[in-house]
Amino acid sequence: MSDNEISARNKIFPRNLTARSNSALERVVGNPANTRLESGVANCFPGLEFDVRTLDNRFFPGLLFRFVTKPLYPEEGTIPNQQGVRLLYIDYLNDPMLPETSELSWVKKLLTDYDANGKLAQAVSKGRWYLDWIEQDGKRLSMTDPQGNYYSCEIAWRFIRGLSPEGELRIGLIRRDALDPKPYYELVGERRRYVNAAGLYDLAYRPGELTESMCNPWSHDFRDCACHYWASNHPDVVIRDVPGSVEQAGAATVYVDWLSVVDRTSTIPAAGTIAQNRLFQIDHYEINQKWEKLPFVLEGREIGREYRPRQEEPGQPYGSDQELIDELSELARMELTLALEYLYALLSLRDPKSAEVRNAKWPGLAADLKVVRDFILLVAVGEMAHLRWANEMLWELDRANIRPNGWRYSPIVELAKNYPTLRLERRLEPLNPKTLDRFIDLERPSGEITRAYSRCVATLRNTKYPVAAYELALRIDGEGTDHYERFLGIKRILQAYGGGSGSFPYLRKVIRGRRDQTECERALELFEELRGHLGKAYAHAAERNSKLERSCIDAARRTMLMFRDEAEDLAEVRGIGVPFWDD
Length: 583
Description:
Layout: H1 3-10, H2 17-20, E1 63-68, E2 84-90, H3 105-114, H4 119-123, E3 129-136, E4 139-142, H5 153-161, E5 168-175, E6 184-190, H6 218-224, E7 237-239, E8 255-257, H7 274-278, H8 284-290, E9 296-298, E10 301-303, H9 321-347, H10 355-358, H11 365-399, E11 418-419, E12 424-425, H12 433-443, H13 448-460, H14 467-477, H15 480-494, E13 511-512, H16 521-542, H17 546-574, E14 576-577
Parallel strand pairs: 13-14
Antiparallel strand pairs: 1-2, 3-4, 3-5, 5-6, 7-8, 9-10, 11-12
């Protein structure tokens, strides 16, 4: 054996090494779920993650095809009848479907045909060969229509895509550019499966082959396809990776246009529409020149350095079922009480539509107030969702017969008198800087709320508990960062207006009312009515009575809208904050 032959035998051929890491079944740190091929938006048009047709380029063992589209505007002299499934070349030496030691007759026949001295190999070395027909279970599909016209590649591909992975497959190859009678060849084999028994892509696919038909670069196509459509795979807006962004509340929460041409250290917020952003985005030629400099985006943030996933402190499971239920019950009360703290703070903000705001010396105050109010409302709504999920975890435990000491589920819509989990007292305060800092500390990802739910996650991970309860705990545990970042964003917005000594341009002059105060009666009645509707809804949900549950939820929503109007009027006209509790 010559040195060259020895060298060739020892050469390492990388084949889907990335896909095969950790058996391809575990997520690779740093790669979000949407980087996996099966999560792609891909379709039959190049330029996205991949062209799904590439999976069928090797549908028949030992052959490599291409799906060819008919030119839309062919120039004079263009080769006619190009569309269809064209045979590129024979590629069988490393095909896992064609081992030399196989005893299968069809494998042996194909190996003979594909051999350099075989008739087929010699025939296809000249001219343009195409797939002429496919046949399975006695049914033959031609690559031409009844009038003899060649089908477009999309139709031809769809025929192949519909082939069964089981059973014998016959195909006919024909040389189109030859004179009649045209050279013709028939082969027998089996259809290739996309993945092998280990769940990995068949090793016949070469590295890079599945993405080779993408536009170059892929972001070029995203730019022209109204990229806001690709929210799951293309980062339209991102949090910029700038020095000090972690310490600066503003930079850590402002979403900028990922394709903006401005200084990469700029944190100018993205505009509200595609057209407004398009003016400041890099152009096509710049994408071609600089695409490799566009930063990677993970978890909504540009990553300019080595990515290090956040190390979560593993929660300590609760010691008993009773302890878990007691903590979930306490968390449900805490979520409702926190929602009211946030709602009270929201109502302390001026109405952005009011005359005093429109005529204020700050032209951006009305818009900023609208954003801040929306942010707080979203957080408050989030806490109400957590209230529901905490109740849901409890009724799931009840359904699973986890009933320590005879415990049975009953809806929890009461307020917490304090926060033993957080070691804090509840408060109703206007949204001044001190209150805002308190909210930020409450929602800090490393704070007590996160720790409490991480213990729930650690406990419910045990297979004796219902999976639904575990997934709900995971969901709540993962939302804390969102609340924290919204409050950081609010701080960045409001701190620009200054103020002090209890006077801030964005705050109403509101004093907390008393529960025995006549002006507060209607708002408190509506609030109690709201709690009643929620309690009934949870009870019906626990009994799997979805019809009555929906009815109660609808009633709760109507009551909430009436409460909102009453509370806004109380604060705006009378300068009174709703006294959800007396302390």
